[in-house]
Amino acid sequence: MTTGLWSTLRTFLDFPALFAPRAARWTDRSQPAAPRTVLVLGPATEAYGGMAAVLKVLTENWSPDRYRMRHIVTHVDGSRRAKLAAAVRGAREMLSAILTRRACAVHVHFAARGSFYRKSAFILMARALGVPVVGHAHSGLFPGFYEGGSRLRRAYVRFVLNRLDRLVVLSEEWADYYRGLYTRSAPVVVPNPAVLPAPATPRPARSGPVLLSLGRLGPGKGTYDILQVVPGVLRHFPRAQFWFGGDGELDEVRRRLQGKPWASRVRLLGWVSGAEKDAAMRAADVFLLPSYAEGLPMALLEAMAHGLPVVTTPVGGIPRAVENGRTGLLIRPGDVPALQGAILSLLRRPAEAAAMGEAARRVVVENYAMASVQARLTALYDELPVARHSPLLNTGRTGDVAGQS
Fold this sequence. Notes:
The protein has 2 domains: 7-193 and 369-402, Rossmann fold (3-Layer(aba) Sandwich); 210-367, Glycogen Phosphorylase B (Rossmann fold, 3-Layer(aba) Sandwich), CATH 3.40.50.2000. Helix content is 43%, strand content 15%. It has helices at 3-13, 20-23, 50-61, 80-99, 114-128, 142-147, 151-161, 172-178, 223-236, 250-257, 274-283, 298-305, 318-321, 336-348, 350-367, 370-383; strands spanning 36-43, 67-75, 105-110, 133-137, 166-169, 188-189, 210-214, 241-245, 266-270, 286-289, 310-312, 328-330. Helix 9 packs across helix 14 (336-348) and helix 12 packs across helix 15.
């Protein structure tokens, strides 16, 4: 891209600033106002994946005091046609809300690869129309997506990120990473929220301990590392059960189980959510997530909220949530002997494992409860610049720009 064309594009996407004096008369933040609307863009809450789980918790538990969330679906599971239709509907809904002044900000949740490219279109549209835009980075795979790309891809990623008024990340570790890409302001740390279940009831009686892993089955979540330790764990605890809940490489997992004498000790639950997920958590004794890359996994926080001791890896934002030896056990990604050792340690010392689970639940209560996350996001929204809708799009409506409902 030539220097001249690049400069023209930057000017176009920043053009609402040219009209800032006129925009001042459209907004009066001193007037009492009903909650203003933030458009929250992301996948459908029933979709697979951690980002959908985050949006489900946020949208279903948000208290509309100063701001209310309006979830706009931009992605669904299914065919390419269904995904394209969802993106088009999402764009239409977002543009309608902006053009009729029914939005004070746009909050875009994104991951890596296709998710980033899809969301970049929404970011650039909202930016061009003068509405403050918050980006919310989720994927633990983003460094590989960025650093493994061409020079053009890296330039585009930096360009899009720096159109954001604020960038939300999941931990201080992720803030350190994104400071190298996003220079417009300091990244804002807002961890994922977790809903606290009712106080734990006695776990149902079973013939042996249950080790639970939730997430997209495949090498990234350490699924095959867990399968490697099954025979070793069963030598000491022959009635142990390994439960896997999630989508992903189910066929490959089934193939690897074929002919194994211990295959009956492995149970594939499929994707679980809602009451099914809650039941699996309540039945489990230990939660396993030996991932190779993560943002801040919702399944891990949910397991901790249920009072489960966890065995996981110090990647992404996990070290902020799990303190080795106090709220769980941390191992290096890919260290299969250490994974087996950690599992056996917890199973041999049930009292210590229970104490870890109780400590893990306290961490969630103190740092990841919905009220704490909402307070951080509300403070962020308060700091956003006033929406400066282009005069070219003036419809005579004021709505959220003027603090109305």
